[in-house]
Design a protein that fits this description.
Layout (H helix, E strand, L loop, with lengths): L4 E5 L4 E7 L3 H11 L12 E8 L2 E8 L4 H18 L9 H21 L3
Parallel strand pairs: 2-4
Antiparallel strand pairs: 1-2, 3-4
Helix pairs in contact: 2-3
């Protein structure tokens, strides 16, 4: 089991863990090892964006079982919504560009990491 990949967004001061193309069994092990784990995640299928507490900080954790770009983008959309919600930002016409920018930044960073072999 390898360690989840970490992204820190300076704009919203938000931490993200990425488990991209990680088996469900290894993802469950990662969560139990690195997060304050309290919910049942054994019945997950395919992918999920979740919020966990790690060292007293809320972390948005994105998991996909396969390296499937459409599944990753789907989960990143949830992750951005969680970030906005935790920071009291409503997704409206006025904040839509911020939402799209954060989604694109996360995807860009993940794809850069994929090229380097980090994810």
């Amino acid at each position: 089991m390898k360690k989840p990949w970490h992204i820190y967004d300076k704009t919203y001061m938000q931490n993200y863990y990425i488990s991209y193309g990680v088996s469900k069994e290894d993802f469950v092990k990662q969560v139990k090892k690195y997060a304050d784990y309290s919910e049942n995640i054994d019945d997950l299928k395919g992918g999920k964006a979740l919020v966990y507490t790690i060292k007293k900080n809320n972390v948005v954790w994105i998991w996909t079982e396969k390296k499937d770009l459409s599944c990753l983008v789907h989960e990143l959309s949830h992750a951005v919504w969680y970030c906005f919600d935790m920071h009291g930002i409503k997704h409206t016409d006025d904040t839509d560009e911020n939402y799209a920018y954060l989604l694109a930044m996360l995807l860009r960073d993940i794809l850069k990491g994929k090229k380097k072999g980090d994810t």
